[in-house]
Amino acid sequence: MFKRNFAKFNQAMGFQRSSNWQKVQHGNDLSTNERAPNSCHPVTNEAVSDDANYSSWMVDHPSALTSFDQMMKDAKGKKIVVFLDYDGTLSPIVNDPDRAFMSPEMRAAVREVAKCFPTAIISGRSRDKVKGFVQLNNIYYAGSHGMDIMAPPRPVRSSDGKYHTVSLDRKGNEAVFQPAQKFLPAMQKILKELEVAVRKIPGARVENNRFCVSIHFRQVRQEDYGMLEEKVKSILKHYPDFRLGWGKKVMEIRPSIEWDKGNALEYFLDTLGLGNCTDVLPVYIGDDRTDEDAFKVIRKRGLGYPIVVASSPKDTKASYSLYDPSEVLTFLLRLARWRKSSSSSRSLSQVWGVSS
Ligand SMILES: O=P(O)(O)OC[C@H]1O[C@H](O[C@H]2O[C@H](CO)[C@@H](O)[C@H](O)[C@H]2O)[C@H](O)[C@@H](O)[C@@H]1O
């Protein structure tokens, strides 16, 4: 008990990672170690070598908590914009996608961060669903991996004219941008076909994310994985304008357009009037493959903090890491606290550099 509390204390202070013992206790990220939820295995040699691998991976992806002071020192005078993924980042990975709730503490932390910096959530879920989970009004939302964006209504220029079909909401406060609109009827047909096709595979479920569809296999028996994949692919072959992607125990079908979470990040920066500023520092926190597109954009811009949430080593373009959503919570709290202490005498519009 003492060990656990001490580790928790250190973690909250950002001094060190959760110990392996804690990893096993929590055991709720099935995607990485594929344990049963809340299982409690003893620490084994394998776990010790997992820790060694993780530690060496962290040399290239240091903890955003232990690096926090340096990161903020480098961020001084820059305009921070915060981007957050939802599943696996703000909420832990759970078996039932409809029950991936975010904790009240996390909600409060995101609310505080959004008071300090422009903040957007970019999720694979439908925009309405992720907004339903997050329940905050002071942030922007993008659903369907960025294909459904609600952003400030600033007219956006783009060199190749790719930003169009923007419509204002009823109050004219926000604008909806949906680059995959024309694929909606076909997407709905695919959804219906998938629902029928997976009906007989125990545990398989289809989730309507509006401009994309998820086929979950977290609760499918391993021997049925092949059959499920075959069914999905045999539907998809009749829809050449759509492609298949993979996430954490999930297949995702989406229109084959060149638009991803990275484009969504740039779109938000443009609509915030920050697209061409050289002193904008995007902070993006995400855990899944589709977040890599946003990490790449930040790397290309040359300024910003791509942070991956990972409890085991993975191939990533992120520069920093956080172990799990509880470390994300700690990071967000520290970020808001840092801003408040460093800008107590400045107005928010000065801090953001945009009209609030
Ligand atoms: O971009 P995100 O917000 O991370 O969305 C990606 C997918 O997240 C959800 O699935 C994942 O989380 C579920 C709940 O914890 C879990 O059961 C599932 O196995 C994970 O893949 C969401 O349900 C998907 O639709 C999103 O595409």
Topology record:
Layout: H1 2-12, H2 20-26, H3 30-33, H4 45-60, H5 68-75, E1 79-84, H6 104-116, E2 119-122, H7 127-134, E3 140-143, E4 148-151, E5 166-168, E6 175-177, H8 184-198, E7 205-208, E8 213-216, H9 225-236, E9 242-247, E10 250-255, H10 261-271, E11 280-286, H11 291-301, E12 305-309, E13 320-322, H12 325-342, H13 348-352
Parallel strand pairs: 1-2, 1-11, 2-3, 11-12, 12-13
Antiparallel strand pairs: 3-4, 4-6, 5-6, 7-8, 8-10, 9-10
Helix pairs in contact: 6-12, 8-9, 10-11
What does this structure look like?
The chain is α/β, with parallel strands linked by helices and 356 residues long. α8 runs antiparallel to α9 (225-236). β2, α7 and β3 form a beta-alpha-beta unit. The chain is 39% helix and 17% strand. The protein folds into two domains: 68-87 and 103-179 and 259-343, Rossmann fold (3-Layer(aba) Sandwich); 182-255, 2-Layer Sandwich (Alpha-Beta Plaits), CATH 3.30.70.1020. It has helices spanning 2-12, 20-26, 30-33, 45-60, 68-75, 104-116, 127-134, 184-198, 225-236, 261-271, 291-301, 325-342, 348-352; strands at residues 79-84, 119-122, 140-143, 148-151, 166-168, 175-177, 205-208, 213-216, 242-247, 250-255, 280-286, 305-309, 320-322. The strands form two sheets. It has a nine-stranded mixed sheet, sandwiched between helices. The model is unreliable at 1-42 (pLDDT under 50). The chain starts with a helix and ends with a helix. Bound molecules: the ligand O=P(O)(O)OC[C@H]1O[C@H](O[C@H]2O[C@H](CO)[C@@H](O)[C@H](O)[C@H]2O)[C@H](O)[C@@H](O)[C@@H]1O. The ligand O=P(O)(O)OC[C@H]1O[C@H](O[C@H]2O[C@H](CO)[C@@H](O)[C@H](O)[C@H]2O)[C@H](O)[C@@H](O)[C@@H]1O binds at residues 85-88, 93-95, 97, 100, 123-125, 207, 209, 214, 216, 218, 247-250, 252, 288, 290. Belongs to the trehalose phosphatase family. It comes from Dovyalis caffra. Removes the phosphate from trehalose 6-phosphate to produce free trehalose. Trehalose accumulation in plant may improve abiotic stress tolerance. Pfam families: Trehalose_PPase (PF02358). Its cofactor is a divalent metal cation.
